[in-house]
Amino acid sequence: MEPARTATPQPDEVLARAANRTWLQPFSHIIEPRRVAVLLASPCGGAIATGWLIADSDDSILERRFARHFMDECSGVEAALGRAAEELIENWLADGTKTYVYTDNPTVQSVLRTLRQYLPNLVVLDSPGPRTTRLTHALRLQLRDYRNEISATLDPTIIATDASVQLGRTGIGVGAMTADGRHFATYHDDSADILVGELLAIRDALKYFPDPVIKILSDNKKAVALVRDALDPQINLPTLHRKTTVIKVLRDIRNYGSQKQLRIEWVRAHAGHSLNEGADRLAVAVRRAARSKLTAEELAVIFEQIVEDIVPNRAQK
User: Fold this and answer.
1) How many CB atoms lie within 10 A of CB 270?
2) Which of 35, 81, 133, 263 is the most exposed, fewest CB within 10 Å of its CB?
């Protein structure tokens, strides 16, 4: 399945082989009772994990399926959801029973609607109602467990993060480094709060590194404790801290962290931990560079030297 490219997407953009399927035929009548189906997808270890379930009118689950779609087999989330939708339709919509289908992907919603000419018993929901919301929540939790089972077989990417501020001046440098020498550093000019800076470093690392299984190392105990709490979806974020700036970053961390299998650990600062030292040096360098107005090329040379000091000969690894 490829994402829709036109204003009126065609069915074969989602279900490429559907036109030749004998089960995809118009029905002379629609059978009640009504069923509800939900389709979801989530990144998973360099692939896409999909899940779907279908429930009868009394909310009893008729079937649920989970699958992992590798990126060399499908082009992205829409493609993976299209395969899941094809399986769902073939297994459950061919009997003419009216079925309400919900997915949170707008492209797949749009393309599924084009199948109404073949499947008048198919109703695509723009948004979930109370019943569909319950089923979506249950499926999302089960899909997360399925994704975590797959991720548990993968080694975590270890990332050290750190932040740097200068007393009396606004502006925070943040940096992160992995054991294989990948790194990033950036400057935030709107705060001087070191806790906010440590959380920004963690958030930016989750955004920057695509790895599905991550272990963050931070030398700020308060930041570590807050992130651990924020990763618990049952905790109300505004109860964790009085500052809205802190809560805003924690909300971002929760969102990015929900797409990965994430652990966070505290390490003692300036105690000989090489990755922590590397992240600290990157954060200091990008903060000083912002004051000195270094060019991007000059800053890249500084970063490269820092990484070479921490992870020498990384190209050979």
Assistant:
1) 9
2) 133
Which residues have a Cβ under 8 Å from the Cβ of 184 and sit 6 or more positions away?
Answer: 175, 176, 204, 205, 208, 282
For 256, 301, 303, the CA distances from 297, given in Å and listed in that order, are: 30, 6, 10
3-state class (DSSP) for residue 209: coil
Distance, in Å, from the CA atom of 315 to the CA atom of 311, rounded to the nearest integer, reads 9
The first and second tokens of residue 239, run together, are 């109860």
Domain ranges of the chain: 11-151, 157-316
Q: Please state whether beta strands 157-165 and 47-55 pair in parallel, antiparallel, or not at all (unpaired).
A: unpaired
C-alpha 236, offset from chain centre:
20
Query: Among the CATH numbers 3.30.420.10, 3.40.718.10, 3.40.50.300, 3.40.50.10490, which is that of 157-316?
Result: 3.30.420.10
Q: What is the pLDDT of residues 224-234, one digit of tens each?
A: 999 999 999 89
pTM, rounded to two decimals? 0.61
pLDDT attached to residue 21: 55
pLDDT at 60 over 60: yes
